[in-house]
Specification:
The structure holds two protein chains of two kinds. Chain A is 29% helix and 30% strand. Chain A has eight helices and eleven strands. Chain A is globular. Chain B is an alpha+beta fold. A five-stranded antiparallel β-sheet of chain B has the order 2-1-5-4-3, sandwiched between helices. A five-stranded mixed β-sheet of chain B has the order 7-9-10-12-11. In chain B, a hairpin with a 2-residue loop joins strand 9 and strand 10. Classes of the chains: A alpha/beta, B alpha+beta. Chains A and B meet through helix 1, strand 6 and strand 8 of A and helix 8, helix 9, strand 6 and strand 13 of B.
Chain lengths: 248, 486
């Protein structure tokens, strides 16, 4: 159990019991815990305090989780990490990650998993992406593209602050599968994107034809490309955690 | 021979006799008529329909007798000869006319018969007359009736026992009983058999023909092949039922997602609280095995409720337009089993889940697959509910490129007569109001859309339904694409 001295967490849920239980957990872990039972109250807290992480429900009276998420945009550089929790299945993982959230947990979720994800997200990218995953991966994504900027336009690949999305014509993978990738750019700010990632979502074409797109969260970036990628991401304007391709 | 002819002839004879000078006209006519009265009355009594012919036959001898009786008194033999010749000619003329008339009548009768025969023969509906009873046979049929039943000739069809043309002898008995009680039926829809054994739908209108004594002599009827109409009706009804099903599912879906939200929130609280408790227990009293077990039980059951909600939410969607996606077959099966566990337990039916094994990923419409499995499970449960031995077993069988999901129950298979029809739309063995008979046929079409098949395993000792489909729906292009397999 990592002690997170000095970190602050904001818990937003209209279920006081859930806030209380989560608060118990994070207090024991050394967080400074703030709670709000609706979005309005959360905004007030955010205006007065510096918060590192927000764990928020989506459907709440008055000001909901998505509005909260949208209002955080542009509050760079100290935008808190946002973890959405939802009892509904109406928001897809793809939508959540592309609208600024770091993760989406359907209720009920495992507390241990939530804690693990938060621990991981609080770890600096240099360390977080330095360890190659152990599990064997037989699927490998190999793409050669002209430049990162061009590929955005082409609608093949789009990089976010925590991963990327890519259009593929491969046998489908499943969410939560770890795949390795090797994307090379002929020119541009970064030479390559090489490592392993977790498939967060798979989007199928609506009418059975067209490309399948994947949202991949970085798990590991190899030594050669890790630092350039991190430097490039920090220099860039804020990006969604894992974007979605607007045209595919 | 008509009255007019008779009068004409009588008049002709009278004139002849008068010309011969035998008698005066005034006398001859009443005389001849009077001479005929007794024989006419006699003839009318004996041959009511041929009275004039008989009278004519009697008239000639009377006229001749009168002629020859009086002839010697005549002086002119030439005159006599001419008169007699005239008489004979008139007679011959009348006779010929009469014969022609009869011939014409016969001709007309034949023509009329031919008209009726061709009408009956050419009608596109089958006409028949048969005898009642279990040994009933045809007396008369038209070509359409024979063709309808797949026979090439009317003769061959006439030799076929009536009962053998029904889907079952019981149906024939039911139909003829109804016919005998009511006297006639209109547009009765029957399942009839062709020569090759295949079945078709027919509408039969028939009536009972009785003899003078009142006992039933024949059944006369009209048969029409309504298979096409019936199929069209079935398609429409099936579509309607599917639509009703979809709308029922969608309203159920709205409710289910509402319930899911309501339950998931407190469930999240319980789940987090239980995990919290687990940590506290581990810290404060590491030796307490009981505490750990209690917390583990809470968490396990939270997960179970989660599965039930997931299954309910998935089942209550229509899912027909969902894209195919990779799903864990094990999860689909577990979620579905969880949903009906209580129902099985209530009816005392043992539900045997597939043995533990590696999970299989399949490209499918998860919701629909779950609906198919649910349907098979419900059928199996209803089938064994009243048996001595009650169990239903689900198994998953990896067959390389395809996967097989089967539901076996403790029933001892289906009788052959059911096997053929079990997958037909609207076929049901359940009581009225308990089943629509659409479940299996809809399930079958869902699996066919997964490029698979749903069938009854006739080799199995127990009743076993098998769903078999490929793990991947389509082979995606490999070369020249961003994807390379290493």
């Amino acid at each position: 159990m990592g002690e997170e001295i000095g970190r602050s967490i904001l818990l937003v849920d209209d279920e006081p019991d859930l806030c209380e239980m989560l608060s118990l957990q994070f207090t024991r872990r050394g967080y400074r815990v703030l709670t709000a039972h609706d979005g309005q109250r959360a905004m007030e807290i955010l205006g007065a305090e510096v918060v590192d992480i927000i764990v928020t429900d989506i459907r709440m009276p008055r000001f909901d989780g998505m509005q909260l998420l949208d209002s955080l945009k542009g509050q760079d550089p100290c935008t808190p990490l946002v973890i959405l929790i939802s009892a509904y299945a109406d928001l897809s993982v793809a939508a959540a990650l592309s609208r600024g959230a770091e993760a989406l947990f359907p209720k009920p979720f495992r507390l241990a998993e939530l804690v693990a994800v938060i621990d991981r997200l609080l770890t600096p990218a240099e360390i977080r992406w330095a360890t190659a995953p152990e599990c064997a991966r037989d699927r490998c994504l190999e793409i050669h593209l002209s430049s990162l900027e061009d590929s955005d336009v082409e609608g093949i690949l789009k990089v976010g602050r925590g991963g990327f999305c890519v259009a593929v014509t491969n046998p489908p993978a499943s969410p939560e599968e770890v795949v390795s990738f090797d994307v090379r750019f002929e020119q541009g700010p970064i030479p390559a994107l090489r490592g392993a990632g977790l498939v967060r979502w798979v989007k199928y074409p609506a009418h059975g034809t067209g490309r399948v797109t994947w949202g991949i969260e970085f798990v590991w970036l190899d030594d050669a490309c890790r630092d350039p990628v991190i430097a490039w991401l920090r220099a860039e304007r804020p990006r969604p955690y894992v974007p979605i391709l607007t045209k595919s | 021979m008509k009255l007019a002819q008779f009068i004409t002839l009588t008049l002709a004879y009278t004139i002849t006799l008068a010309l011969l000078g035998v008698v005066s006209v005034v006398f001859a006519f009443p005389y001849l008529l009077f001479a005929m009265i007794v024989p006419v009355l006699f003839a009318a009594f004996l041959y009511p329909r041929r009275v004039y012919l008989v009278m004519f036959c009697l008239l000639i001898p009377v006229a001749l007798a009168v002629t020859f009786e009086t002839l010697p008194r005549s002086s002119d033999s030439v005159k006599a000869t001419v008169s007699i010749a005239l008489m004979v000619l008139a007679t011959a003329e009348i006779l010929q006319t009469s014969m022609l008339e009869r011939k014409r009548a016969e001709e007309a009768l034949r023509e009329s018969e031919e008209r009726y025969r061709s009408l009956i023969e050419n009608l596109p509906v089958g006409l028949y007359r048969n005898t009642p009873g279990p040994e009933g046979h045809f007396i008369m049929v038209n070509t359409a009736a024979a063709r309808l039943h797949g026979y090439d000739s009317v003769e061959e069809f006439l030799r076929t026992p009536v009962a053998s043309l029904y889907a079952s002898p019981a149906e024939r008995e039911r139909f003829s009983n109804r016919l005998m009680t009511v006297g006639k039926v209109e547009g009765e829809e029957l399942h009839l058999r062709r020569k090759d054994g295949s079945l078709f739908w027919a509408a039969v209108t028939a009536r009972v023909i009785r003899d003078r004594g009142g006992s039933i002599e024949y059944f006369d009827g009209v048969i029409e092949d309504i298979t096409d109409r019936k199929l069209a009706e079935q398609t429409i009804a099936e579509q309607r039922a599917q639509m009703a099903n979809a709308s029922r599912l969608s309203s159920l879906g709205v409710m289910a997602s509402g319930i899911a939200h309501e339950i998931n929130n407190p469930l999240a609280v319980i789940s987090v609280a239980a995990e919290e408790m687990a940590e506290l227990v581990a810290q404060e009293n590491p030796a307490s095995e009981w505490h750990r077990r209690i917390v583990a039980t809470i968490i396990r059951n939270v997960e179970r409720i989660e599965r039930i909600i997931r299954g309910l939410r998935s089942l209550s969607r229509d899912g027909a337009t969902d894209p195919f996606s990779m799903k864990s077959l094990r999860t689909i099966v577990d979620d579905t089993l969880e949903l009906c566990r209580v129902r099985f337990r209530t009816h005392g039916v043992e539900l045997i889940a597939p043995a533990e094994g590696p999970d299989i990923e399949v490209e499918c419409r998860g919701t629909q697959l779950s609906q198919v499995l649910m349907n098979l499970l419900n059928n199996a449960e209803s089938a064994v509910e009243n048996l001595e031995e009650k169990w239903v077993r689900v198994s998953i069988n990896d067959r390389g490129d395809t996967v097989e999901l089967s539901v076996t129950d403790s029933g001892k298979g289906l009788p052959p007569v059911l096997r053929e029809r079990i997958l037909e739309p609207f076929f049901t063995t359940k009581e009225v109001g308990k089943g629509t008979g659409l479940g299996l046929s809809i399930s079958k079409s869902i699996i066919e859309r997964h490029r698979g098949e749903l069938f009854l395993d006739t080799d199995s000792v127990n009743t076993r339904f098998v769903v078999r489909f490929p793990k991947r729906q389509q082979e995606r292009a490999q070369g020249g694409e961003p994807w390379v397999r290493r």
